[in-house]
Amino acid sequence: MGNKVPQDLHYTKSHEWVKSEGDECSIGITDHAQEMLGDIVFVDLPTVDVKVGAEEECGTIESVKAASDIYSPIAGTIVKVNTKLESSPNLVNNDPYGEGWLFKVKPDNADDINKLMSAEEYQKLEEE
Predict the structure, then answer these.
(1) Which of 1, 33, 37, 31 lies closest to 127 in space, CA to CA?
(2) Any idea what the Cα angle at residue 93 is, between residues 45 and 51, rounded to 5°?
(3) How far is CA 2 from the centre of its chain?
(4) 117 located within any domain
(5) Reduced to 3 states, what is the DSSP secondary structure of residue 9?
(6) What is the residue range of 92's domain?
(7) Is residue 93 part of a domain?
(8) Who wins on pLDDT, 125 or 89?
(9) What is the percent of the chain with per-residue pLDDT over 70, rounded to a whole number?
(10) Strand ranges (DSSP E) for the chain?
(11) What is the distance between the terminal CA atoms of the chain, rounded to a whole angstrom?
(12) Can you give the pLDDT at residue 28?
């Protein structure tokens, strides 16, 4: 597979990525996930200031093919959502690790990110 898996991120089995940025974590879906979904037409993002649990469903991505739930990889509080996706949901297809990020969480416990998969572990999962 030719999917990009940035080495500096952490990953989940449900194909979310997490990037630690100071006391916040940016979260999005992986290149593999956006490829499986196809053309994304709508993103239902979580609400700012809402507390989420690890692996808790907090949004939805809809493509021309299917709707898929978005899960928060870590427990914490939603501090920001990517409002650009309201008018340009295709940013998730075009730049899943950059402009297509979904939301940011302030984790309850910063160490939780270390419980997630490394890029290497995620690549193995993808190849299975």
Answers:
(1) 1
(2) 20
(3) 19
(4) no
(5) coil
(6) 10-110
(7) yes
(8) 89
(9) 98
(10) 10-11, 16-21, 24-29, 40-44, 51-52, 56-63, 67-72, 76-81, 103-107
(11) 11
(12) 98
Amino acid identity, residue 6?
Answer: P
Which amino acid is it at 59?
G
Q: What are the angstrom distances between the C-alpha of 96 and each of 4, 101, 105?
A: 10, 6, 17
Count the domains in the chain.
1
Whole-angstrom distance, CA of residue 31 vs CA of residue 5: 7
Q: What is the pLDDT of residue 2?
A: 52
The whole-angstrom separation of Cα 127 and Cα 19 is 22
Query: 5-42: per-residue pLDDT in tens?
Result: 999 999 999 999 999 999 999 999 999 999 999 999 99
Averaged pLDDT for residues 85-110: 97
**Residues comprising the chain, all counted:** 128
Query: What distance lies between CA 76 and its chain's CA centroid?
Result: 14
CATH of the domain at 41: 2.40.50.100
pLDDT band of residue 1 (cuts 50, 70, 90) is very low
DSSP bridge pairs for 117: 11
pTM beyond 0.85: the answer is yes
